């Protein structure tokens, strides 16, 4: 008894016609008939009643049909299990991260994955958040660390890593230095040093400015938080960062929360919905590295 014989029996039973069954399994009608005849010979019973215009199951055929379907389902599950294992032994993963955002848990997750699954090739590229989100949605990128405004993007799998308020990084000797509260309009009365368009932080800033009808004067754009801090420290403008990105220790500029920007800047891990076994495993590693359930 062979799996293909059981497959042909199911096809004939469901199509009630040898010709349609043959088209479905993509072999000749004579091939289907011959294989079912051989199965009947092995079982010692007639499975198909061929006396009418429709091919119908005999009572013995009906009894065998249930087991034929179960056997085919079991075989399919075995193939899937093997494919899952192979997917973790070989293949590739395209990973992206927002430019200038050094988040060590992502690196820890990639290292932990690679130690176990050395046969999977990993590529890591940097880019703007909008570009990375589009890459994940199209399947060009499997997983990415991106910045967004308020919440992770739709149409992808995701979990949030950080959700923080925006702060103004005040240069030494600046008129705003020493203030404990700042509004967006007060901050935007001065040149700004901020992230470029397409980043999550810039998205939050642009949305807030548009809501208040403010046109900020952007003095310098930089993709890395450290660069923005350094530029602000040298007096090129007021830096705009999230709370954790504004390192104010060791003589760094002061950072003050911008009171009327309530939309948080979100850092999130996102992934394509068409998941491979390797991607599922990497997501598990990412959750562990970021200490998420």
Describe this structure in words.
The protein is α/β, with parallel strands linked by helices. It has three domains: 3-87, Arc Repressor Mutant, subunit A (Orthogonal Bundle), CATH 1.10.10; 90-161 and 267-289, 3-Layer(aba) Sandwich (D-Maltodextrin-Binding Protein, domain 2); 166-263, 3-Layer(aba) Sandwich (D-Maltodextrin-Binding Protein, domain 2), CATH 3.40.190. The chain has helices spanning 3-15, 18-25, 29-43, 59-89, 104-116, 129-138, 184-187, 200-212, 225-233, 277-289; strands at residues 48-49, 56-57, 91-98, 120-127, 143-149, 157-164, 166-170, 192-194, 218-221, 238-242, 254-257, 265-271. It has a five-stranded mixed sheet with strand order 4-3-5-12-6, sandwiched between helices. The protein has a five-stranded mixed sheet with strand order 9-8-10-7-11. The radius of gyration is 31 Å and the shape is elongated.
Q: Give the helices and strands as they follow along the chain.
A: HHHEEHEHEHEEEHEHEHEEEH
Identify the strand order in the major beta sheet: 4-3-5-12-6
Q: Give the helix tally.
A: 10
Give the CA-based shape: elongated
CATH topology of the largest domain: D-Maltodextrin-Binding Protein, domain 2
Q: In total, how many beta strands?
A: 12
Which percent bin holds the helix content? 40-55%
What is the arithmetic mean of pLDDT?
Answer: 89
Helix- and strand-based class? alpha/beta
CATH structural architecture of the largest domain: 3-Layer(aba) Sandwich
Q: Low-confidence runs (pLDDT<50, min 5 residues)?
A: none
Strand content: 15-25%
Instruction: Please compute the radius of gyration using only Cα atoms.
Output: 31 Å
Work out the count of structural domains.
Answer: 3
Highest-level CATH class of the largest domain: Alpha Beta
Major β-sheet profile = 5 strands, mixed
Distance between the termini: 47 Å
CATH homologous superfamily assignment of the largest domain: Periplasmic binding protein-like II
């Amino acid at each position: 008894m062979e799996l293909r014989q059981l497959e042909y029996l199911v096809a004939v039973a469901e199509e009630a016609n040898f010709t349609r069954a043959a088209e479905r399994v993509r072999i000749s009608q004579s091939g289907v008939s011959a294989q079912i005849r051989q199965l009947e010979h092995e079982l010692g019973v007639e499975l198909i009643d061929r006396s009418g215009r429709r091919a119908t199951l005999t009572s013995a055929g009906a009894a065998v049909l249930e087991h034929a379907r179960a056997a085919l389902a079991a075989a399919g599950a075995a193939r899937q299990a093997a494919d899952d294992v192979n997917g973790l032994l070989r293949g590739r993963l395209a990973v992206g991260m927002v430019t200038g955002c050094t988040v060590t848990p992502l690196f820890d997750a990639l290292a932990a994955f690679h130690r176990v699954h050395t046969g999977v090739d990993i590529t890591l590229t940097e880019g703007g958040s909008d570009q990375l989100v589009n890459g994940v949605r199209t399947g060009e990128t499997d997983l990415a660390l991106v910045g967004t405004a308020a919440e992770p993007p739709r149409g992808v799998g995701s979990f949030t890593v950080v959700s923080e308020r925006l702060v103004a990084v005040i240069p030494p000797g600046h008129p705003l230095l020493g203030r404990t509260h700042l509004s967006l309009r007060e901050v935007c009365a001065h040149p700004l040093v901020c992230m470029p368009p397409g980043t999550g932080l810039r998205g939050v800033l642009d949305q807030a400015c548009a809501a208040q009808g403010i046109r900020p004067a952007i003095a310098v754009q930089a993709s890395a938080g450290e660069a923005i801090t350094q530029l602000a420290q040298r007096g090129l403008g007021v830096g705009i960062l999230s709370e954790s990105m504004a390192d104010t220790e060791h003589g760094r500029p002061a950072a003050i929360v911008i009171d009327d920007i309530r939309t948080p800047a979100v850092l999130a891990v996102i992934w394509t919905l068409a998941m491979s076994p390797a991607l599922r495993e990497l997501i598990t590693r990412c959750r562990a590295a970021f200490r998420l359930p």
